[in-house]
Structure formats: C-alpha cells, structure tokens
Amino acid sequence: MTARINSELVFTCVAAVGLAASIADAGDRPAPEQVLHRTVTIDGLDIFYREAGPRDAPTVLLLHGFPTSSHMFRNLIPALSDRYHVVAPDYPGFGNSSAPDVDEFEYTFDNLTRVVERFTEEVGPTKYSLYVMDYGAPVGFRLAVQHPERVQALIVQNGNAYDEGIANDFWEPIKAYWDDPTPERKDALRGLLTLEATKWQYTHGVRNVETISPDTWGHVQPLLDRPGNQEIQLALFYSYGSNPPLYPQWQEYLRTHQPPTLVVWGKNDAIFPAAGAHPYKRDLKEVEFHLLDTGHFALEEEGAVIAGLIRDFLGRRVAD
C-alpha cells in the first residue's frame, strides 16, 4: 500500500518523536567519528570538504546553501557519522574553497554542479543520499538527473524544485534582474550581501533567537566581504534564473525514479516558504514530510530533530 507520511499537524508532536528517536538511538550507538577537514584539487581549484564516518558505510552527500558553506553541517556530520560516511564540500567561492574572480571562473549552477560531480568522482562516493538545501537543490537535482543511478535517497531541507517555492515577494527583485540585468538592478541586490541580511537569514522565523549562535554570521560575513566575492554572489543570483526552466525536468526525475525522499522544511522560511515543500507530494508516491516550526537554516534550531529523522529514514530506506 502506498505510504504517505504527512507530519504537518502539530510541531510539538514532530519534535517529540524526532527527539525521542534521536535520544533512543544515541543510547545504543558508538561515539561519532572524528570529523576530518580536507582539500582536494578539482580542475585547478582547491575544494575544501568535511568528511567523517566509515568509508564502507552508506554515503550522505551534504550540499550547502547560500551564503554559508559546509560549516552549516558542522553539528549534523558528527550526529550521523557513527553509521554513515558523511561528506560535505564547499563550492567554489564559498567557505574554504578557492574563490577565483568572476573573470577567471564562470559562476553558474552548471559549473558548480560540474565541480561537485568531479569532486564526488575524485573523493569516491559513487552512490550517495543527497541532502539538498537552498543552493544545494539546483546542484543536487542536476546531479540526480545526470546520474540517477548514484542517488540512493533524497533529504530536502528548504530546497526548491517548484514554481510555488519562488512565488513570494523575496524573489521579485531577483526575478527583475533575471529579466533585465541592468547595473541598477544588480546593485539593488547588494543589500542581500550585508551583515544585516545575513543575520536575518539565520534568525527570521525561528522560535527563539537566543538559540541561534552569532558564530554563524560571524563565520559567513567575513567570507562574503572578501574582495571580489560580491561579484561572485551576484553572478550566482543571476544564474539562479537558469533553475526554474529546469524544474519540469527535475520533477520528471522524481516521478520516474521515485527516490526515497525525506522532506524536513523550516515552515517559517521567508526565502523558500512551505508553499515550495508541498508540491513534492504531487510527484513522489512515498514521501516522508515534516514541516518544522523554524526558519531558513532549520539545522540551527532543530538540528537534533532533523538528525533523528534522518537516521530513522535512512535506517529504513537505505541498506548498509
């Protein structure tokens, strides 16, 4: 019988179940593996990544969002690494990876995907479960379409693949830039690269702002403020316009291949609202669906819940 798990009812029930599973699981499992911080050269670029867990275990490939890096997974990696091989790269222009100027590297989502594809082939996870968040979704879905045989499962956390997910006011000035990339429209987007905007991404929609560490924007903002990085990010804002035309292709991938999918979504996200989460249920016959009462970077406030849900999901859906 087709199963469809919908956990939208009451957040406290979701949190209680997730935390209980996580706590019960923790009592039986060994200590997490040490997280290693590594760099590999891909097409002349130094690509930094975090890695932990046994290499013969199922791999979870974590793909980060804007404006962060693999740093967003700093707590999730050890929470999974006793049982899974967990790998989280930084894209070019982000985190500790190379950040060549825009005249030296074409910052498009096609190119980010190419680098991540080469990264997986170099580092070695030939099959993996994909965790896609924000920018990780267009990278991850490109990978999935190109190599469906490599994807064992999907974990979607505020990662969009539907027009409904970008129909809100946040996207209006960005869409205007896609339609007519004038210098004025480009400059209007620089406000998204400020400390105020970065802090807003981490704190908007959370239940308790005191749970959000300032180390988050303290890590991100100095990287955004590097010389030349604004132009990198603005190039990717423009390239994001290449993603909506691919949504039908990504949705066809979901309908055709029916990857086991866990949706864990911060429902108060003003960038990718819950309206973009629900359509996954149209295309997937079996989807485990959880709306969490938090914002864009759901791991910051609900990391323990999400880790528990992932462990339960992968334990049932991905063979060791």
Automatic annotation (TrEMBL):
Single Gene Ontology MF annotation: epoxide hydrolase activity
EC number(s) given by UniProt: 3.8.1.5
Gene3D superfamilies (alphabetical): alpha/beta hydrolase
Span of domain AB hydrolase-1: 58-302
Pfam families for the chain: Abhydrolase_1
Keyword Glycoprotein: no
Domain of life: Bacteria
Coiled coil: none
Protein name (Swiss-Prot/TrEMBL): Haloalkane dehalogenase
Organism (species): Maioricimonas rarisocia
Lineage, uppermost ranks: Bacteria, Pseudomonadati, Planctomycetota, Planctomycetia, Planctomycetales
